[in-house]
């Protein structure tokens, strides 16, 4: 009977048997946004509505007694009429309470949850079931892409070793999203754009950045199916055919469903963007963290795919017809990955629950797996040695990911902090939570954070606004030496890597400024004494104008090696151009703890320091009428330290 089946049907049967065995053998892992997705599924299965009712919360407390305190607090918050009863739940305009995450993933799990509960299977294995369904869809897409059962299974193995194993059993939509993204890319290049568009639209209902993949569908088809005998215009017309446009439209229509729901219920296009994200958090530092953080970046999740793709690109450079085609596909995949990553950088909870690479990276890295699979398809024979090396490296990453959580250090993260701290300056949230503090611990700008090994401080972190860091680390009358290794983190945080070196220092404050007022004769306002406000950090003088000059008298018997100017910036000012005794230091963020080291005059006996400051964005009363001052404020100097 099996001999009468086509190879494709044999593949489907084998895949179903394998996934069925996994379903019954493995248990679901309640992780991720477990509170929201579980109770939403119960609500949808009970009353076909995503609004969270007291009966839903009581039922989940019974099914998941380990989480009963959380759900009880949520129920009490709802009864008290709180706007945000607990964590990820929010009161809507209709006075009902909903999860801040959309309910499409929970809706997919609701039917199997209802059935499983009736037949005695753990109802929350419904999430495991849904994830396996998307892995099945991925298997079908891989077979369509390779036209080979062996290569399709190879693709599935690589998917599982590239984050699939880490998130497949989670009760959150990471596996669904990553499988849908990869499937959609495969379907776009095999001319099945409607299925691809629908998968992207569905995944984007849970992770909105995924919607940007819709514009990459035609690009992928165009670059992978380009016909050199046709003109550029004709190739473009083939890529933008009617079915492609329908697929893009269908995917976008799916994506708009949660947008409409959020507008209806919360009055905003996305409630998460309102209460749990901020565009101000998007930065190059976070982008670097997304890809290269040694605890949760893509570098610890898919290094084998990166190396393997680079090798295959190099090997294929001389093949006929591949001179530009493969680099073009690679460039599109990299751009696609960036488009997925950048919106995710806005999340406020950067160090969220994870196994290995962060959850956003699990689906944000799918374009790199697609690239590797596409390059494999171009080979006349499978490169066995390369595949073995890639597979072993990915297996190592997968095994490592099982042994630490978001509150612990990865093997590579631990190695880097202990042996090469200057080469790893993680996001501040990652640093404090993975070196001992609990999830969600607030960052205190007045506190010094340390990573210690056997009592030895390997790495210190402090905020630029701290004025006590020198005294805390070096004692009174001393300054952290410019020879100390500094590293920059995000959002005004800095690292000290390795041993702290200290120099003797002279500190000038408001009292010294007032004694020598003539030193502030050009480009300054008046002296201000605000007492003990902010530990005296607002006792000093504002600049007034596009530039300012300080003439600081120093003792010739005390050679000056470096200067640190203690400042606060006004509004849009973030840096200052500094010239000291004719030596152009350049544009500097004076809030950093870096000492402005004097190269031309270091160690020389000089009696005066002429410090010229050019300001980046002085206040303009005409452009900012809401701020009632005619002074052209830019920088507030509250101290000068000489070392």
Automatic annotation (TrEMBL):
Keyword Transmembrane helix: yes
Keywords for this protein: Membrane, Transmembrane, Transmembrane helix
Keyword Transcription regulation: no
Protein source organism: Undibacterium terreum
Domain of life: Bacteria
Segments crossing the lipid bilayer: 98-116, 128-146, 152-168, 180-202, 208-224, 245-266, 294-314, 326-346, 358-376
Name listed for the protein in its UniProt record: Uncharacterized protein
